[in-house]
Specification:
This protein is globular. The chain has one domain (3-202). With 206 residues, the protein is mainly α. The longest helix is centred in the middle third of the chain and has 28 residues, at 58-85. It contains 7 helices and no strands. It has helices at residues 3-27, 30-54, 58-85, 91-108, 110-128, 134-156, 169-195. The protein is 80% helix and 0% strand.
Length: 206
């Protein structure tokens, strides 16, 4: 598959992944609604990154939307942590505190942002001690995304040399991460509805 076509498919898969968080944002209230709204913004921003690349706006997508989507994901991780800990810190106050930090990380690179976000979710996953938890599964998504970024760096630097038939290995790994995210969200939503639990069980915010 051509790189441009893969960006197109990535955008479609990201939109599929966004459907459930959008639904949850409409259905939920209070902090949980804010949490799913942040997740929705991340996925839609990442979809915009894919679509911009597809239409040839590589500088805008790679230089702005990819690191910004990673920054939103980090903010989601911080918000998730605060709600899980049930600390009396509003998301609005966290935005004031974390905003400058997120912007600093944007200039340092997407992978730095992702590593920071991964550390949050890995710690939460370790506390939950459950591989079925949302924290553990989104950690897997972030790891795959990081691997794609590392593959891009290695390929651009010439350390990894692939034939033209093999294409962009980093983009292919990135596609795998979005497929994983979409399947994870839909399956969690499906099983939460099937078991009769509250809708928020699809996020497993604990």
């Amino acid at each position: 598959m051509l790189d441009s076509q893969l960006y197109l498919v990535n955008g479609v898969v990201a939109l599929l992944a966004a459907a459930i968080p959008i639904y949850l944002t409409i259905r939920l209230n209070n902090n949980l609604r804010k949490l799913t709204a942040i997740l929705t913004i991340f996925i839609l921003m990442h979809a915009a990154y894919c679509w911009l690349n597809y239409f040839g706006f590589g500088l805008l997508s790679d230089g702005v939307f990819e690191p910004l989507s990673a920054a939103v994901l980090m903010f989601f991780g911080i918000s998730y942590y605060e709600i899980a800990k049930q600390e009396k810190v509003s998301i609005k106050k966290m935005a004031v505190f974390c905003g400058p930090i997120a912007l600093l990380f944007v200039f340092l690179g997407t992978i730095i942002l992702l590593l920071g976000t991964l550390s949050i979710f890995v710690w939460l996953a370790a506390r939950s001690k459950d591989i079925r938890s949302f924290q553990f599964q989104i950690s897997i998504f972030i790891i795959i995304w990081i691997l794609g970024g590392v593959a891009d760096i290695l390929q651009d630097s010439g350390i990894i040399v692939l034939s033209s038939m093999q294409g962009d290995i980093g983009l292919e790994i990135h596609f795998a991460s979005l497929v994983f995210l979409s399947i994870m969200i839909w399956l969690r939503f499906y099983y939460s509805q099937k078991s009769g639990n509250r809708t928020i069980k699809a996020l497993d915010a604990k």
